[in-house]
């Protein structure tokens, strides 16, 4: 299958705080991967494509998270078992409202790590 992403992804557990737009309750978890166009989250719940999420992203070198709006693009049909023994659904999320400075922060984080891994 051909890669359709505009930005490369780094498999790294960036801290993410997410909540469904307009719904109470927020959750913190590590991402499965991240790139300047989106990320993959290990969600414990089924969620429909098109669902809007408010995200707070905390890159390792940052002291405070930055916030953006994202949309669920896909979710795995079957759940996986994480290292903690919990079941989760891989969920692909696209950033839909993020300013250029935030996107550049992600690029400056991701690309040096990919270069070091020779990917």
Structure, described:
By secondary structure, the chain is mainly β. The chain has a single domain, classed as predicted glycosyltransferase like domains (Thrombin, subunit H). It is 14% helix and 41% strand. It is built from one helix and eight strands, in the order E-E-E-E-E-E-E-E-H. Strands 1, 2, 3, 4, 5, 6, 7 and 8 form an eight-stranded antiparallel beta sheet that branches. Strand 3 and strand 4 form a beta hairpin. The chain is globular, with a radius of gyration of 14 Å.
Do you know the CATH topology?
Thrombin, subunit H
What structural class do helix, strand and pairing data support?
A: mainly beta
* Fraction in helix: 10-25%
CATH architecture field: Beta Barrel
Q: Which key features would you list for this structure?
A:
mainly beta, 8 strands, 1 helix, Thrombin, subunit H, eight-stranded antiparallel sheet
SSE blueprint:
Layout: E1 15-20, E2 27-30, E3 33-35, E4 38-43, E5 52-58, E6 66-75, E7 80-81, E8 87-97, H1 100-116
Antiparallel strand pairs: 1-2, 1-5, 3-4, 4-8, 5-6, 6-8, 7-8
């Amino acid at each position: 299958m051909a890669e359709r992403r505009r930005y490369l992804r780094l498999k790294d557990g960036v801290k993410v705080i997410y909540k469904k737009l307009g719904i109470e309750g927020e959750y913190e978890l590590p991402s499965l991967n991240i790139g300047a166009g989106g990320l993959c989250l290990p969600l414990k719940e089924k969620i429909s494509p098109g669902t809007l999420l408010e995200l707070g992203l905390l890159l390792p070198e940052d002291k405070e998270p930055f916030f953006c709006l994202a949309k669920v693009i896909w979710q795995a049909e079957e759940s996986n078992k994480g290292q903690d023994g919990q079941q989760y659904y891989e969920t692909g999320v696209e950033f839909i409202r993020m300013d250029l400075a935030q996107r550049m922060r992600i690029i400056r984080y991701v690309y040096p790590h990919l270069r070091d891994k020779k990917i």
